[in-house]
């Protein structure tokens, strides 16, 4: 009797072959949400690369100005350069460049006519 109740009727059973008929789509780009997320990520990566490039160009331009300022000061205004050099003594990069830039800004505020002369020398 237990054996009889344990036997299955083929009429009422779901065939085992039909049990797993769901299709799994492994193509991730078929899902619009995933496409949107990947597109957003790609845009963020591109924006980050552009921002880094711009910052590198700005750093390069500032460094060029500092080198030209130092050269002009050493060539034409050596006695004033000695005062500036004393303020820069013992500083390593990037602190030295930052301090030199601050000194340039201070000179621009306090002595604009002098900085105009230095700027003319820098463009030569």
Key structural traits:
124 residues; mainly alpha; 5 helices; 71% helix
Structure report:
The protein is mainly α. The protein is 71% helix and 0% strand. It has helices spanning 2-6, 32-76, 78-88, 95-110, 112-122. It is rod-shaped and about 90 Å long.
Radius of gyration: 36 Å
* Count of helical regions: 5
Shape: rod-shaped
Instruction: Please tell me the overall pLDDT.
Output: 82
Low-confidence stretches: none
Name the helicity range: over 70%
Q: Element order, helices and strands?
A: HHHHH
> What does the main sheet amount to?
none
What is the number of E strands?
Answer: 0
Q: Whole-Å distance between the termini? A: 110 Å
Class from helix and strand fractions: mainly alpha
Sheet-strand content, in percent, reads under 5%
Mind sketching the topology for me?
Elements: H1 2-6, H2 32-76, H3 78-88, H4 95-110, H5 112-122
Helix pairs in contact: 2-3, 2-5, 4-5
Write a short abstract of this structure.
By secondary structure, this protein is mainly α.
């Amino acid at each position: 009797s237990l054996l009889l109740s344990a036997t299955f009727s083929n009429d009422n059973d779901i065939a085992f072959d039909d049990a797993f008929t769901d299709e799994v789509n492994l193509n991730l780009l078929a899902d619009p949400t995933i496409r949107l997320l990947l597109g957003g990520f790609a845009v963020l990566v591109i924006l980050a690369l552009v921002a880094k490039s711009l910052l590198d160009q700005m750093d390069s331009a500032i460094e060029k100005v500092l080198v030209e300022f130092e050269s002009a000061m050493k060539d034409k205004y050596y006695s004033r350069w000695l005062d500036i050099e004393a303020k820069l003594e013992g500083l390593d990069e990037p602190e030295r460049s930052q301090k030199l830039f601050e000194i340039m800004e201070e000179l621009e505020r306090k002595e604009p006519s002098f900085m105009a002369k230095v700027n003319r020398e820098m463009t030569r």
